Amino acid sequence: MTEQKPDMDWNEAVPTRRGVLRGASACLMAGAMSGSGAAAVRPIPFGSAAEIGAFRDDARYRDALKRYCDVVVPMNDLKWEALRHDQPRFDFSGADELVAFAQANRKALRGHTLLWGEALPNWAREMTTRAEAERELVNHIEIVVDRYKGKIATWDVVNEVIKYDPTDGGPWRDTIWQRLLGPEHVDIAFRTAARVDPKARLVLNDFHFEEPIPGAAARRKVALDICRRLKDKGIPVHGVGMQAHLYADKGIDVDGVQRFMRDLDELGLDVEITELDVIDWKLPAPAAQRDRIAAALVSTFLEAVVSAKRPKAIVAWGLTDRYSWVHETFPRKDSARARPLPLDADYRPKPMMAVLERYRRGLA
Ligand code: XIL
Description:
With 364 residues, the chain is an alpha/beta fold. Helix content is 44%, strand content 14%. It has 14 helices and nine strands. An eight-stranded parallel β-barrel has the order 1-2-3-4-5-6-8-9, surrounded by six helices. Helix 10 links the parallel strand 5 (201-206) and strand 6. Helix 7 runs parallel beside helix 9 (184-196). The longest helix has 22 residues, at 287-308. Residues 1-37 have low confidence and may be disordered. (3S,4R)-3-hydroxy-2-oxopiperidin-4-yl beta-D-xylopyranoside is lined by residues 75-76, 159, 243, 275, 325.
């Protein structure tokens, strides 16, 4: 059976007729293939963040990116830390390599990220004046967005600008950008990105939107407020990225997610899942059990999203358990390797991959 390819024009600012027609015929074919009589739907492109070290050293990693992904996101190589280690000189080596790979293999690209309070070089952390911060931010965005214009069609313009718990003295996260520029740091970033590449899709990316905790509802509200405020000022914003680092021990606030989707819809905003993985540090040890729980969690989460609004893309924060930030950031007490991703450490698809493939093929 031929695999259904999602519409590769997904991340163009204006959908093309070619893209729409291709999407429609893919849906019909998916329907004919499903054999279940269930109505087929628009396939959702699937992608992964790519780590430059693994990409360079591990041919199986590159093959997996080619085989499973429609979208590639440089995991760390577009962050300030990588690009701006020396203040005056930009180092595009890692990002260029991943962009070239994506282009050669006809993968769409997401850019992560133009503004973040973390992954900054020391000189940026040590800025002291408003004028300096604004000059550096604008200059950075102009150079980076311009370099990848026509190649990177979607940008996480700002990342994690919302306070961890906005009910506790929020709404803004305390970063160098917020300290020196105030809330305007978000306006400057979006305005500059839109000016340099008016066709780019511009996204606000953040985490903890789906957790069943009071702070999550407040985070959703702040995200909506920021986007509404940008729109009121005439500054383009096209969507919200839900990082979706899902805590297996906490579960999903299905009602909250669905309400968020409807609110985004009302504001005319897209949603995309940008950093999907499962934090399994509190789960029991047996691998098969952890994989089953992870797949069920991802399924519950995606069903909650898709039942209210189809995301533009579903991107996992890595592909294989062989390489993942979860292992170090959320270590298990028993020291067993984390199992956060759709492929195991030997590149075998886990139950989570079956869940993801259903969306990728337009069967769910
Ligand atoms: C993480 C990367 O996966 C690690 O390799 C790196 O050491 C630290 O950053 N939220 C984000 C991502 O927006 O950029 C982070 O990525 C994970 C949390």
